[in-house]
Structures are given as C-alpha cells and as structure tokens.
Amino acid sequence: MTQDEMKRAVAQAAIDYVVPKLKSDDVIGIGTGSTANCFIDALAEHKSKFHSAVASSEASAERLRSHGIEVVDLNATGGLEFYIDGADEFDPHLNLIKGGGAALTREKIVAGASKEFICIVDQSKQVQILGAFPLPIEVIPMARSYVARELAKLGVEPEYRQGVITDNGNIILDVHNMDILDPKRVEDQINNIPGVVTVGLFALRGADVLMMSTPDGVEVMMAD
Ligand code: 5RP
C-alpha cells in the first residue's frame, strides 16, 4: 500500500465516522495538507448532509469551493461540531506537531472552536517523543531575529523558512531536533515569547480522536 493509498483510506475512515453524525445545520472545520485534501475530496459526495465548512487555509477553502461546498467565516458560526485535519507528528497522548504546511495558526483556532478534533494520519507520523519533525512557529515579521534569539536562550536553534509567508502575512521559524518531553510546557513557553503568533504544538488542545492508516487497516485512538 502506498502512502497516498493510506491517506485516502484514513480519509474514508474519517468520513465513515463523521458523516452519520452530521446534522443539516452543522458547520464543520476542515484542515490543510495532503491528507486533509483526501478528506475534502471524499466529503464532496456528502455535501447535502451538513450546512457548510470553515477552512484552516485559503488552499483548503478553494478546494472545498471547487467541490461546491460552502465555506463560511468562523465569526459567522456559533462554533463547530468537528474539526478534521492531518498532522506532522503525534505521540501516545495525541499531542501533535502541525504546521508543515504553514497553516498552524488557523488550524489551532479552528481546532479550538470545534467540539471534536479528529486527526487523520498515516503511520509515518507516529513517534514516542515529539520533535524529530521541525517544530514550526509562526512569527510577526518584525520580531523574527528577536524571537530567534529568545529561542536560542531555551537552547534550541530555529531556522527561517525561506520564501514562505503565511495566510496571515507572517513568517515561519522551524526548530530542528528538539526532544519535546513536556509538550504543554513547551507550547506555553514558546507562545509567551512576544512576536510569536503561535507554535505548532497542539498539546493544550490535542486531538480527541486519532485515526492512523497502516497497510493492515486504520487504527483508532482516543485521547487519554
Ligand atoms: C499543515 C499541517 C498538516 O496537517 C500537516 O503538515 C500534515 O500534512 P500532510 O497530510 O500533507 O502530511 O499541519 O499546516
């Protein structure tokens, strides 16, 4: 089974989980990335079963609209039933690293506004300790050097992601080779640096349900 086939399989498993629960006035949150794209494509045939979607990026909004799914502003909703998105890494407690696609801030907002966060991944994303994947941090452009120096004081070395501007007009610093032993503490610590918009650690609000695709099928894990 290829990685693409695994992504499509886990997207279908999320469809099977979410669609029977949808009500006609529900607004659902949709994430960003190749696995989220598989979910969007599979959702298209069920678009009559819910009201609309909130997207975590312009790219996902465009893909949803291309399937005729209405995209609404989060401010126009009273909250979301589900948020379905991928991740770059997850640990046994369903803490996540996200932001490989630079959409971390909107992803964190939409996850926060949702009753249930369903994370869909293939088995390559599973780790015991987060941090092998470079940890993305969205930063206000004028604070780039200052934030980098503050991160250095924490003993980590950020790298400027060249040529990337987020949907919010900011830049990304990626922190390499960090053993994140206490994800909630690290999330707080980095978020408290002035100029940081948000760090791509999803520990304070991790996934509620995680579906992991393997060649033998999809495993479902629930948050502890
Ligand atoms: C985008 C993200 C994605 O969820 C993450 O990068 C996983 O992407 P993919 O499904 O393509 O592996 O956080 O900012």
Summarize this structure as a short list of keywords or feature phrases:
alpha/beta; six-stranded mixed beta sheet; four-stranded antiparallel beta sheet; globular; binds ribulose-5-phosphate
Distinct ligand kinds: ribulose-5-phosphate
Give the class from helix and strand content and strand pairing: alpha/beta
The number of helical runs is 6
As a percent range, the share of helical residues equals 25-40%
Strand order of the largest sheet: 2-1-3-6-12-13
- Integer-rounded radius of gyration: 17 Å
Series of secondary-structure elements, N-terminal to C-terminal: HEHEHEEEHEEHEEHEEEE
Largest sheet: 6 strands, mixed
**Termini gap:** 30 Å
Low-confidence stretches: none
